[in-house]
Specification:
This protein is α+β, with helices and mostly antiparallel strands and 688 residues long. The protein is built from 26 helices and 28 strands. The chain starts with a helix and ends with a helix. The relative contact order is 0.06. It binds 2-(butylsulfanyl)adenosine.
Length: 688
């Protein structure tokens, strides 16, 4: 008996729904191609979902019309007990490898020889990238995907049809009028790097096993007995050839490999051959080199390029040797991943104090260079990857990037493998290593006394908003540290013009200028000095607040955590950092030395709160004072609120004259400016 539902439907409604199903499928397939094959979506995700749901609803209503090639059937199904074996109708061959230009030349010579071409005639090659994934064979009968198989040993592979159906860029039905009765499409399944990163991220969040690289992730995802897992992973596919073709329509009686690939593209397969055919070996090598340079910019891994004789008639003449075609060769890039053993793990202190665990490795050639060290990023990373001293590890070096340890090969772990422990003190300077809550990076707290951080600290110390030492650039600082002239910032004030002039690319005049700038910097403000010390988390604004709040450096140095917490904008992290900084006696020594060497600053409380006879007065120093050095006198005056100028004018309020005062004194007398000696000046200063 008919269900009331169906009974209520007229034949014409059924026909309309059937047509709608067909239209929806065609439309969704076209959108899939636009999205997954051409990377150019034609509708929004929401619009796609709406069409998809409409189709799903219709298929639920009419289960009799559900077909295996419907776009809704890509979600995976019941897990398999195992994979069935599939015998390939046409064996899946492999490629011979070339690693050098010489080997490519030898290949070309063999091809020419095999074809008996005359000297001076060059062979036409189709060139492609060599995808670093897994080979797969897709069998279409009457245009419908009926079977997908892995390469296996080349003769027999595994039936992974259910999994392959979930790969969106693989057409379930060929979109064309003329299609061969049987068509086997050969190509590579891979995972794009971004999809790989995302997968590993989710694996990590779920506490599941991480994949070493995109190829392993692609293999692991394709060889899943549960196709729903495959469906949840983003796999991609690129076609690069054909296997069995039974083609009465003669679509594939093509004369060139390039045409075959074009035909596959027209059928809706993703292909990656935007390369024109190339004649002769020199062009091949150029293609190899260009592709090598572009390697890192591709969204997926490649491990070389492939050269194929383009003319299919020539291919046939050349034939095969053992399991490889004589008409093709893979020109491989140096491997980006190799395995080696971890001899030790120690730490490296960066210029910002970041302490990075580094694996010392048994030398191994990766990506064309010998690698002996590889970064392990941070302690969490070491723990997550569970890399131990003595382990066999996979090391990766991509492009110019620092080599890194990808993972340990657990099967090869020796019984005496040792776990890495982050040291508690800096190997460079002995300061405590700290790691703040929520931070992955451990840091040396040595700041400016840590040699590893010294250059960075000095650059900061000398910078415009800190001690403002004009002309003391990064290059100069690097040189001074490298030759051992400077070990702590106070050493800057011990430099002589001669020492500066002895540095590379330092003319006498520039040495004098830098020397003068260093001397000028001795007179500074409390805020600048605090900022210059480079206490972690103490930026310019915090330095100013501290100076204003405490007035003197002594007060800042003596402030405890509780005090500091009451300061505006100083939170627990900043307060802790300040206290830790002063707890290190070596920082106190630096300050002591700076003072001894004549560095001085205005104690804010003095200038801001108390007016003196010198407040806002312009003062000029001339001649040699009996007890005070020029800089010392200047500092005293500035602390008292004076502006110390270099020349006498009508605006000058006082001239302080010493022995051998010359023209400035004369000018002061001419202009009627008050002149006094050191003793008078000190008297006035005392009266404040
Ligand atoms: S052609 C008869 N083209 O390399 C030639 N193979 O070492 C069959 N591969 O198993 C292969 N990219 O997995 C060809 N553009 C490409 C390729 C490619 C990657 C893989 C494929 C094959 C292996 C051969």
């Amino acid at each position: 008996m008919m269900t009331p539902d169906l009974f209520s439907q007229t034949d014409s409604m059924r026909t309309a729904d059937e047509q709608r199903i067909a239209r929806l499928r065609a439309e969704l397939n076209a959108h899939n191609i636009a999205y997954y094959v051409n990377d150019a979506p034609t509708i929004t995700d929401a619009e796609y979902d709406a069409l998809f749901q409409e189709l799903q609803a219709l298929e639920t209503q009419y289960p009799e019309w559900l077909t295996a090639d419907s776009p809704t059937q890509r979600v995976g199904g019941t897990p398999l007990p195992q994979f069935d074996k599939v015998r390939h109708a046409v064996p899946m061959l492999s490629l011979a490898n070339a690693f050098s230009t010489g080997e490519v030349q030898a290949f070309d010579a063999r091809v020419r020889d095999g074809l008996g071409v005359a000297d001076g005639v060059s062979i036409e090659y189709a060139v492609e990238v060599k995808f670093d994934g897994l080979a797969i064979s897709l069998r279409y009968e009457q245009g419908v995907l009926v079977q997908a198989a892995t390469r296996g040993d080349g003769e027999t592979g595994e039936d992974v049809t259910a999994n392959v159906r979930t790969i969106r860029s693989i057409p379930l039905r060929l979109q064309a009028k003329r299609i061969p009765e049987v068509l086997e499409v050969r190509g590579e399944v891979l995972m794009k790097r971004a999809d790989f990163e995302r997968l590993n991220q989710t694996q990590m969040e779920k506490g599941e096993k991480l994949f070493a690289n995109p190829r392993n992730a692609a293999a692991g995802s394709l060889r899943q007995l549960d196709s729903r897992i495959t469906a949840s992973r983003q796999l991609s596919f690129f076609a690069y050839g054909v296997g069995e073709v039974s083609d009465s329509a003669q679509v594939f009686s093509q004369v060139s490999f390039a045409r075959i690939v074009e035909q596959l593209r027209d059928y809706g397969f993703p292909v990656y051959t935007a390369h024109p055919v190339i004649r002769g070996v020199d062009g091949l090598i150029e293609f190899y080199e260009q592709t090598g340079k572009a390697r890192e910019t591709l969204p997926f891994d490649i491990d070389g390029v492939v050269y194929k004789v383009n003319d299919t008639a020539q291919q046939e003449i050349l034939g095969f040797v053992s399991r490889s075609p004589r008409w093709a060769i893979a020109h491989k890039f140096p491997a980006q991943e190799m395995s080696t053993t971890v001899l030790d793990i120690d730490v490296q202190v960066g210029r910002t104090g970041a302490v990075t665990p580094v694996a010392r490795l048994a030398p191994v050639e990766v990506g064309g260079v010998v690698v002996t060290n590889a970064t392990l990023h941070n302690a969490d990373e070491v723990a997550r990857k569970d890399v131990r001293i003595g382990d066999t590890v996979i090391v990766r070096r991509a492009g110019d990037v620092i080599p890194e340890v990808v993972m340990s090969v657990l099967e090869k772990r020796p019984v005496d493998a040792r776990v890495f422990v982050m040291p508690s003190v800096c190997p460079e300077c002995g300061s405590p290593i700290e790691r703040e809550d929520g931070e992955a990076v451990s840091r040396c707290t040595g700041g400016m006394i840590c040699p590893a951080q010294l250059k960075q600290s000095l650059m900061h110390f000398a910078s415009r908003k800190a001690m403002n030492i004009d002309g003391l650039g990064d290059k100069l600082i690097e040189q001074m540290v490298d030759v051992g002239l400077i070990k702590t910032p106070d050493d800057l004030y011990r430099l002589s013009t001669a020492q500066l002039a002895g540095l590379e690319r330092m003319a006498e005049k520039s040495a004098q200028n830098v020397y003068a700038a260093i001397q000028t910097s001795k007179s500074t403000t409390l805020a600048r000095l605090i900022y210059a010390l480079g206490i972690r988390h103490v930026g310019e604004a915090t330095a100013k607040t501290l100076a204003k709040t405490y007035g003197t450096l002594d007060a800042v140095m003596n402030a405890n955590l509780d005090d500091l917490h009451t300061v505006e904008d100083v939170g627990p992290v900043v307060a802790h950092s300040i206290v830790t900084f002063w707890a290190d006696a070596r920082h106190q020594t630096v300050i002591k030395h700076l003072v001894e060497l004549g560095v001085h600053w205005d104690d804010v409380a003095v200038t801001e709160k108390i007016a003196t006879p010198f407040t806002d007065k312009t003062v000029v120093l001339t001649g040699t004072l009996p007890t005070l050095g020029r800089e010392e006198a200047k500092a005293l005056l500035e602390q008292a609120g004076a502006k110390v100028a270099g020349s006498v004018s009508k605006k000058t309020d006082y001239v302080i004259a010493g022995v051998d005062a010359g023209s400035k004194l004369e000018k002061a007398q001419q202009l009627g400016v008050t002149v006094m000696d050191e003793a008078q000046m000190l008297m006035m200063l005392k009266r404040q």
